[in-house]
Amino acid sequence: MHHLIGHAIVSADDCIADATGRIPEALHNEKDWALFQAALDRSALTLIGRTSHEMVPNQQRRRRLIVSSAADGLERRVDGFWMNPAIVPLEDALKELLPDGGEVAVVGGQGVFDLVGAARFAAFHLARARRLRLPGGRGLFRDCERGVPAASILLDGGLVAEAEVIIDSGADVTMTVWSRRT
């Protein structure tokens, strides 16, 4: 079984990037980054969009599945596995790459989070920079850009929020882990 675990840091208004698609410096947080890197170390595979893949080089040489319309199905490239979801369903790619199942870190961007869909996440680790607002920014999910809170999307997907924890009091960054209750 594949356990899809989402990881993201958002602004107070549920954005992962500004209106130009750029991740502002104020959305970077060292304490969140350390938690994120530890989660990636535990995962058997990282599911990432092409733009995010290009912005964050794979210096740790972790196993990546890059989602891109430029891929010809599921293909092996020097920098990881590439998948075009219009040709190969995500489940088929995961079965091919992790036949025995395992944890998949889903790190975005928005297209990847929407591709998975809230109902398919086993959990979602959602950090929030509570002082930052990004009007007109890129939402965690596409529906966030229409005013639907990320919390509502995750709840509707069957996930339940654990208690919010402050991970960096100086920067006012919190973490809420959303989990599927069985």
Cα-to-Cα separation, first versus last residue: 15 Å
β content, as a range?
25-35%
Give the count of helical stretches: 5
Estimated radius of gyration: 16 Å
Order of helices and strands: EEHEHEEEHEHEEHEEE
Structure summary:
This protein is of the alpha/beta class and 182 residues long. The protein has helices at residues 30-42, 50-55, 90-97, 110-116, 150-156; strands at 2-11, 15-17, 45-49, 64-67, 74-77, 80-83, 102-108, 123-129, 138-139, 159-161, 165-168, 173-180.
Topology, pairings included?
Layout (H helix, E strand, L loop, with lengths): L1 E10 L3 E3 L12 H13 L2 E5 H6 L8 E4 L6 E4 L2 E4 L6 H8 L4 E7 L1 H7 L6 E7 L8 E2 L10 H7 L2 E3 L3 E4 L4 E8 L2
Parallel strand pairs: 1-7, 1-8, 3-4, 3-7, 4-6
Antiparallel strand pairs: 2-9, 5-6, 8-12, 10-12, 11-12
Descriptive account of the structure:
- The chain is an alpha/beta fold and 182 residues long.
- The chain has a single domain (2-180), classed as Dihydrofolate Reductase, subunit A.
- The protein has five helices and twelve strands.
- Strands 1, 3, 4, 5, 6, 7, 8, 10, 11 and 12 form a ten-stranded mixed sheet that branches. The chain has a two-stranded antiparallel sheet with strand order 2-9.
